[in-house]
Recover the amino acids of this structure.
């Protein structure tokens, strides 16, 4: 049973002192349709970036979230606050958690992380000396030791029982043997950024690497069996497309405008906005005649708050909108989305018929697609209901080598055959990669040995949500931490296929 809203208004005032000049901008129960929290948001009318957000549990009145965003003044003109270091920060965090988190004495695992803007504390329950995920709470102190973030965990797992340490677990030697016998090194082209990886240069670059598959299998510590299976860790298999020379060329007038090629009826749609961000040109089309909904923008509901805050940006997702993105340097289409696709017709087209529509579209917007793309095999099981859209995923390959995380997505309306969504890739990137030669200098066996020499095992708890009642499993998880920094976050991600060097993720 939910607590009365008036009582929640009394409770929220005890959480944090709201400055008198701040205005209450939102008070509503969220998420809509599955209400769990009463959320309050205050903003500084003189600076809308200054915001205080507090959420209370509807059934208990407990604090579930606290977010305080303040614009810091010029610290050089302020006398710095005298602090007593880490101990004072820990005492403040402990006191706040003891006051607002139930059963806080059970949060025996405390991880402290230094941040540029303050200190983060991660409180968790423990079993067998290992932290339990989805328990406890997270808290952040700013540089002056004010609590600016708090999030209570585990409220949605009330039926989940706290696990007990197993009577026996598989030994590490057996698990290591299993991992080594199921690990393979796959060639891939990857994008490396100096902010994420340890690199000699300061510029982003593409490298040919060997990637471990799977890199982090989840092995049940009691049975020694992978709880997911090999297909969980890889993208679905794909196959090359027929050479373009053997395909019938799509028939269309090359003099047609972009709107005509994309089937945008300029009698019904008008170009409402076009933006150039330096890399892409983004265009928004809206129906010339449409019924406008005028929300009560003065109300304190979540919908009204979002309309006031982000109304202009949210309006692009109206059912009447069509969004188009072009890559500026190449003029190639990299994004297309037609809203309101689900408002017409009954599914009647087969997947094969939809692929013919998708392939025709590709021939127009990506004429040399067969040279660089493969088509993923559809392994999704039908549940008996006809699909309203058919999705086609086309990963990018350069000379038969996959480019990690680069693929095109097309969805086709199964009642009209219209393209609903096209998520493209940078053609400039494809041109850059196709001009290079990617040939490995080391074998997969050498890469395997260089990767395995850094392999370690760690035990961790994992909350298995695939069960009717979620339950905790104790797992062996392989890690590849640096021998020079075994407690750090630095992990081995790839082996360079040309030089053989280790590529570490920061």
């Amino acid at each position: 049973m939910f607590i009365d809203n008036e009582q929640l208004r009394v409770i929220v005032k005890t959480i944090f002192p709201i400055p008198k000049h701040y205005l209450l901008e939102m008070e509503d129960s969220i998420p809509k349709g599955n209400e769990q929290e009463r959320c309050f948001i205050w903003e500084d009318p003189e600076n809308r970036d200054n915001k205080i957000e507090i959420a209370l549990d509807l059934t208990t009145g407990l604090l579930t979230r606290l977010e305080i965003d303040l614009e810091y003044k010029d610290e050089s003109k302020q006398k710095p606050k005298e602090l007593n270091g880490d101990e004072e920060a820990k005492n403040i965090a402990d006191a706040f958690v003891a006051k607002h988190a139930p059963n806080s004495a059970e949060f025996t695992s405390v991880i402290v992380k230094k941040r540029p803007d303050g200190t983060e504390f991660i409180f968790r329950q423990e079993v067998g000396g290992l932290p339990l995920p989805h328990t406890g709470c997270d808290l952040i102190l700013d540089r002056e030791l004010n609590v600016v973030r708090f999030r209570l965990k585990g409220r949605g797992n009330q039926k989940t029982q706290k696990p007990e340490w197993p009577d026996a677990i598989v030994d590490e030697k057996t698990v290591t043997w299993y991992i080594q016998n199921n690990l393979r090194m796959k060639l891939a082209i990857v994008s490396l950024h100096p902010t994420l990886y340890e690199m000699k240069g300061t510029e982003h670059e593409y490298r040919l690497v060997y990637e471990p598959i799977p890199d982090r299998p989840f092995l049940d510590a009691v049975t020694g069996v992978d709880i997911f299976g090999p297909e969980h860790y890889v993208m679905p298999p794909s196959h090359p497309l027929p050479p373009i020379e053997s395909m019938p060329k799509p028939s269309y007038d090359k003099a047609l405008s972009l709107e005509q090629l994309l089937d945008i009826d300029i009698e019904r749609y008008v170009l409402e906005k076009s933006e150039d961000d330096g890399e892409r040109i983004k265009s928004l089309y809206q129906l010339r005649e449409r019924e406008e909904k005028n929300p009560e923008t003065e109300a304190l509901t979540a919908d009204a708050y979002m309309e006031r805050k982000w109304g202009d940006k949210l309006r692009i997702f109206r059912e009447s909108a069509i969004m188009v993105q072009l890559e500026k340097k190449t003029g190639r289409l990299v994004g297309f989305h037609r809203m309101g696709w689900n408002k017409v017709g009954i599914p009647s087209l087969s997947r094969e018929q939809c692929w013919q529509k998708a392939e025709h579209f590709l021939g127009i917007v990506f004429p040399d697609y067969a040279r660089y793309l493969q088509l993923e095999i559809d392994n999704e099981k039908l549940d008996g209901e006809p699909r309203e859209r058919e999705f086609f995923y086309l990963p990018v390959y350069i000379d038969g080598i996959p480019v990690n995380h680069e693929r095109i997505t097309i969805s086709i309306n199964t009642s009209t055959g219209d393209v609903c969504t096209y998520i493209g890739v940078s053609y400039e990137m494809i041109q850059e990669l196709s001009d290079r030669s990617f040939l490995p200098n080391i074998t997969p066996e050498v890469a395997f040995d260089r990767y395995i020499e850094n392999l370690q095992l760690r035990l961790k708890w994992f909350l298995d949500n695939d069960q009717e009642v979620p339950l905790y499993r104790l797992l062996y998880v392989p890690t590849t931490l640096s021998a020079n920094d075994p407690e750090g976050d630095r992990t081995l991600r790839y082996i360079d296929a040309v030089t053989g060097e280790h590529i570490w993720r920061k």
The two ends are 47 Å apart (CA to CA). Residues 5-72+82-157 form one domain.
